[in-house]
Amino acid sequence: SMRTGELHWELISRMRAVDCQTFVAMCSCGRNTDEPDVFQSWANSMLITPWGRKLEHAGIDEQIILQEVDLNEIDDCRSQLMYSN
Q1: Can you give the pTM of this predicted structure?
Q2: Strand order in the sheet with 46-48
Q3: Confidence of residue 36 (pLDDT cuts 50, 70, 90)
């Protein structure tokens, strides 16, 4: 939501990717700026790497994110972080 999005959306997204050591796709509907009286989504869909880096990021408008990912990055991350050992 607009109330928590600015502070929490990216933080939670990156934290979840690092915590699970995998790619995370955070999907949200675009923001409806034409009707300010209806629910306003924070929007900002994104794709995060296992290291917590933003790979792709959509703004507030409706957008499709299409990105190739290297699944070997998951194994690389997991072999260097000792969470699961």
Answers
A1: 0.82
A2: 24-26, 46-48, 54-57
A3: confident
